[in-house]
Design a protein that fits this description.
This protein has 5 helices and no strands. It has one domain. With about 180 residues, it is mostly helical. α1 packs antiparallel against α2, α1 packs antiparallel against α5 and α2 runs parallel beside α5.
């Protein structure tokens, strides 16, 4: 379990770096697009498309980071009604299994989609050097990292189910 926690912490640190770079580039590109369009009256043909592609990558990496940090959308109305730690952990384990199944399926289908688009050789309309399939690779990558985070939560919930102890979610600063 500790190995998975350490691996997830390191991967999410890398994902945070990717998020920082993508958001920074999005802001810079959008800023220059406004400058070129309204001040210089010469709009950049490629900026909107690049900003959109960066947003796709930011979305999938951000979803993984949000789950890791416990800030992802979470409906606990049903599980919070149980006071017994084992019952709550069991219900959380069922939710983790459903999430894991969905994420693995989504990653698999995303891989098939990106592979198909890469095999077709489809390139961006305004960036002739960029294969569109590279943009779609964000789907399986983001889903796989989120699945690893769900797996770490499931291990904690299983431990809580077997021991009856409540286990807090991992704090990245404590690992």
């Amino acid at each position: 379990m500790k190995l998975l926690e350490v691996f997830n912490t390191k991967m999410n640190t890398i994902m945070c770096g990717v998020m920082f770079v993508t958001f920074t580039l999005m802001v810079i590109i959008t800023f220059f697009q406004v400058i070129f369009r309204y001040l210089l009256e010469y709009p950049l043909a490629w900026s909107e498309e690049v900003a959109r592609y960066l947003f796709v990558w930011a979305t999938y990496t951000g979803a993984s980071i949000a789950f890791y940090e416990g800030k992802h959308i979470n409906v606990t109305l049903f599980t919070d009604t149980f006071k017994n730690a084992r019952v709550r952990a069991g219900m959380s384990l069922v939710a983790d299994a459903a999430s894991l199944w969905f994420l693995i399926l989504f990653a698999y289908k995303g891989f098939l989609l990106s592979n198909r688009i890469l095999n077709l050789g489809q390139i961006s309309s305004s960036l002739p050097w960029l294969y569109v399939g590279v943009v779609y690779v964000a789907i399986p990558i983001g889903c796989l990292f989120m699945a690893l985070n769900v797996l770490a939560h499931a291990v904690r919930h299983f431990h809580s189910l077997t021991t009856g102890e409540g286990i807090q979610t991992a704090n990245p600063d404590e690992i």
